[in-house]
Amino acid sequence: WQHIEIMPTRSTSLLSASSGAAPADEATRIRLACAYIADASHGWRPECHGVDVRSLTAFELFHSRPVQALRYLNVLAYMAIALCETPGWCITAKGTLAAECAADSGSLEAHHTFGFTPLSPLAGGALEACCVLLFVLQLGLKARFMGRHRFARSAPAVLQLLLLTVAAADLAVWCSSVSWRRTPLSRPLRPLFIVFAHRKLLSTFYAVVRMLPAVLELLLLISGLLAFSALISFVLFGPWEPPLAAFASYGSSFYSSFLLLTTTNFPDVALRPYRSSRATVLYFVVFQLTLVFVGLALMPARLEAEYLPVSPRISPSLPVSPHIS
After folding, report:
1. Reduced to 3 states, what is the DSSP secondary structure of residue 91?
2. Residue 98: CB partners within 8 Å, gap ≥ 6?
3. Nearest to 137 by CA among 160, 106, 110
4. What are the φ/ψ torsions at residue 55 (nearest 5 degrees)?
């Protein structure tokens, strides 16, 4: 213990940030100190949980190895449902299998994922309901150690609550007599549960979302230049005889310009006008210099410049002194 320096100012600020009173007994203070050490070693903010005994118990349970393993297995099972559930287009409005998906039609055999028969709609729905229930229990445990006010101010927690609400509402509509068909909402949103399952992945996701407005400006600039280049190519090459299929209309000119931008099939687009007139090389050279070598080259530079300030900081693990047991 001689290696530990007492910093009352820092401790007071942590307790005030957690908006809780200082624990009176020594055992709770030691548990709180261990929770703060875990926060610092993982780069978590200390105000993300309470300081009372119940909050600390819920915090320790949520981050224990068995519960973490259960959380990851639940996400894996929820993602794996898509590999074995009956496709949504096979379910009629009355909840029965469509004629083309009947067992004797041979249609489902063509859609087998790994050679096994898909689960029935009831079995797939029951498995999904169990996974959603475990997600709800995990979120309830998080709300317990965070507290209502912290939980309501946490954007990830609120978004996860909305995501679970959509999934539960989809299952409720499917189980009721309103519609036996699944709504096209919860299934496309399933990959978001992978993002919410890991803190660093969630921080990276938020960093990408926060940098999109700045990158959108460059994307709009490149899109405008692409549309303008398509218009020029349509005006230049559209009236030619014999007509060029790549520039016969503005839509085909835009598609051909997009192929030039991605450098895909560049000879197929540029060689036919070049064979008719060598002067067309000026247009393609200006296009390549402006959009490919300048516009697209600015994209990774802008991505790096915008991502680094908002990227999650990776905190190194704190060394634990061997004198502390």
Report:
1. strand
2. 89, 90, 91, 92
3. 160
4. -65, -40
pLDDT for 71-114, tens place per residue? 889 999 988 888 877 776 677 666 666 666 665 555 555 555 55
259-278 pLDDT per residue, tens:
888 866 677 788 888 888 88
Kindly write down the DSSP assignment for every residue of 6-24, as one continuous string.
P-HHHHHHHHHHTT-PPP-
User: Amino acid letter at 29?
Assistant: R
DSSP state string for 49-75: S--SHHHHHHHHHHTSHHHHHHHHHHH
Q: Is the dihedral of CA 46, 50, 51, 53 positive or negative?
A: negative
Report the b/e string of 189-198 with b at 16+ CB within 10 A.
Answer: ebeebbbbbe
User: For the residues of 169-198, what is the DSSP string, one character each?
Assistant: HHHHHHHSSS-SSPPSSTTTTTTHHHHHH-
The 8-class DSSP code of residue 103 comes to: T
What is the C-alpha to C-alpha distance for residues 172 and 182, in angstroms, rounded to an integer? 10
Peptide bond into 242 cis (omega under 30): yes
